């Protein structure tokens, strides 16, 4: 039976909110890592993550810029989490929580990049400048730091799990860069592609530190 028109008009603007509330679930950081690694990044505590950014066929440039800026902040928090890790399960779980938030932010950037219209030279360079916050030099510092944590990670028996996390982070980072490359002018796309390949090498070195 169809709903009255008045009821439909009241429910329609609430549907996106209901969907978001349904996707965002509180997660205890004592949950086994094998579950967390297969759980969508949306299933994070809402108090610890940026709101899901709206996307549509006419997503403005500001949406993409904001998404990249949020990602930069989340990467910084992840860096601090890795820095604070010295071998306790609690520290490991805190770092894992920060990494999952990074993945969520990466997917927000990918969605914004896919939705935005092709950019002109000026806007393309604005995106490139914003991307310099988390990429590529910051990534070198982050991955170099992660390489120094092989012993305490091994002490917890988490070597294989960290390797899987790094492989997935590498994969979604490539998806982000390639999504941006499709929407910016060629010169900027070439610069983003060059940074992506350089970061891929950094990931490869770090992954090797956790086993072939």
UniProtKB/TrEMBL annotation:
InterPro entries found in the cross-reference section: Cell_wall_mannoprotein_1 (IPR021054)
Pfam short name (any one): HsbA
GO cellular component, one term: extracellular region
Top-rank taxon: Eukaryota
PANTHER family for this protein: CELL WALL SERINE-THREONINE-RICH GALACTOMANNOPROTEIN MP1 (AFU_ORTHOLOGUE AFUA_4G03240), HYDROPHOBIC SURFACE BINDING PROTEIN
Protein name per the record: Uncharacterized protein
Organism ancestry: Eukaryota, Fungi, Dikarya, Ascomycota, Pezizomycotina
């Amino acid at each position: 039976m169809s709903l009255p028109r008045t009821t439909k008009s009241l429910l329609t603007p609430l549907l996106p909110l209901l969907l978001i509330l349904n996707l965002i679930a509180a997660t205890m950081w004592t949950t086994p890592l094998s579950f967390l690694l297969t759980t969508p990044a949306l299933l994070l505590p809402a108090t610890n993550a940026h709101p899901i950014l709206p996307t549509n066929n006419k997503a403005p440039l500001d949406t993409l810029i904001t998404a990249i800026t949020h990602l930069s902040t989340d990467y910084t928090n992840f860096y601090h989490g890795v820095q604070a890790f010295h071998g306790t399960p609690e520290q490991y779980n805190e770092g894992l929580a920060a990494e999952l938030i990074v993945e969520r932010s990466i997917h927000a950037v990918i969605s914004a990049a896919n939705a935005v219209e092709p950019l002109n030279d000026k806007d393309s360079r604005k995106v490139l400048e914003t991307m310099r916050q988390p990429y590529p030099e910051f990534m070198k510092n982050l991955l170099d730091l992660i390489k120094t944590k092989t012993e305490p990670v091994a002490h917890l028996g988490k070597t294989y799990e960290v390797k899987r996390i790094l492989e997935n982070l590498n994969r979604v980072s490539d998806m982000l860069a390639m999504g941006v490359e499709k929407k910016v002018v060629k010169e900027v796309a070439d610069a983003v592609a060059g940074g992506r390949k350089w970061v891929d090498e950094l990931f490869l070195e770090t992954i090797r530190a956790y086993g072939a």
